[in-house]
């Protein structure tokens, strides 16, 4: 049987990453819980900076959001300020409504800079020619902020995504599956990926595809197609080799059944063996 190709934007199945990078900036909503290693609340200047980012993002004020970035902003995936702006515009163009929640998990001072680890959760709808898709996602990012000498405003200097996952669904009965993929692997290591269907298939036909893309500028800004194939077993099972250099990959799984579509994405961090979490 010929493969069915389902076109989709690469980062449409990784919106949590795009949000934590672009719109949320590790944002904190009013009344949100905060914690740190010493149980002290983050400095007011840090809370004010991320709260302002949330306010401007909710107003779709792109110019205002970009004012909160340092001109020298760097993202671990390779995006600069202009590419970040393009990613935000693309994100907002595809999502009319998004709701956010976030927690500052940890923070610390690093000389004149402030570093914060932020956990972000989101829900919303994504526009699609095939109808709206329900979006849920979570991301953990590490942000570093520095006060601008000219304006006195705290600005985002750099960001690293530590963990992220997103799920998109459509239809009355989208396929349900459990995605098993490691959060981090050593460079060049072999790893297993499993997307195990958790509902009886009966006589239903199930199509599926898995993609692994490097988390870089192209993966935020370009589109890709899912080459769907009929599944002979209750899910997708792959064994793969990690790249031989540090970085991140975005692992995406799409399943299409009689009752709908499910797309789930996870970030896989490729690290030196000595740097792997214990």
Structural category:
alpha+beta
Order of helices and strands: EHHHEHEEEEEEEEHEEEE
Q: From the alpha-carbon coordinates, what is the Rg to the nearest angstrom?
A: 19 Å
Helix % is: 10-25%
In DSSP terms (H or I, runs of 4 or more residues), the helix count works out at: 5
- Averaged pLDDT: 79
CA distance, first residue to last residue: 45 Å
Number of strands: 14
Shape: globular
How would you portray this structure in words?
The protein has 278 residues and is of the alpha+beta class. The chain is built from five helices and 14 strands. The strands form two sheets. Strands 1, 2, 3, 4, 5, 6, 8, 10, 11, 13 and 14 form an eleven-stranded mixed β-sheet that branches. It has a three-stranded antiparallel β-sheet with strand order 7-9-12, with no helix packed on it. Strand 3 (98-110) and strand 4 form a beta hairpin.
């Amino acid at each position: 049987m010929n493969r069915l190709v389902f076109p989709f934007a690469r980062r449409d199945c990784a919106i949590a990453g795009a949000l934590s990078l672009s719109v949320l900036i590790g944002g904190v909503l009013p009344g949100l819980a905060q914690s740190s290693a010493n149980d002290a609340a983050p400095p007011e200047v840090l809370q004010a900076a991320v709260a302002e980012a949330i306010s401007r993002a909710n107003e779709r004020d792109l110019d205002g959001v970009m004012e909160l970035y340092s001109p020298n902003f760097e993202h671990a995936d390779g995006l600069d300020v202009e590419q970040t702006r393009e990613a935000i515009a693309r994100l907002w163009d595809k999502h009319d409504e998004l709701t956010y929640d976030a927690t500052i998990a940890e923070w610390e001072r690093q000389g004149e800079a402030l570093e914060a680890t932020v956990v972000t959760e989101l829900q919303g709808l994504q526009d699609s020619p095939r109808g709206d898709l329900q979006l849920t996602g979570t991301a953990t990012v590490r942000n570093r902020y520095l006060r601008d000498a000219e304006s006195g405003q705290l600005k985002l200097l750099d960001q690293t995504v530590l963990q992220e996952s997103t799920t998109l669904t459509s239809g009355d009965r989208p396929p349900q599956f459990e995605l098993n993929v490691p959060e981090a692997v050593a460079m060049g290591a072999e790893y297993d990926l499993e997307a195990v269907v958790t509902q009886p298939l009966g006589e239903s036909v199930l199509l599926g595809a898995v993609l692994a893309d490097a988390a870089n500028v192209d993966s935020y800004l370009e589109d890709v197609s899912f080459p769907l194939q009929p599944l002979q077993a209750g899910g997708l099972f792959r064994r793969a080799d990690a790249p031989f250099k540090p970085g991140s990959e975005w692992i995406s799984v799409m399943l299409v059944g009689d009752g709908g579509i499910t797309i789930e994405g996870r970030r896989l961090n490729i690290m030196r063996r000595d740097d792997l979490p214990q």
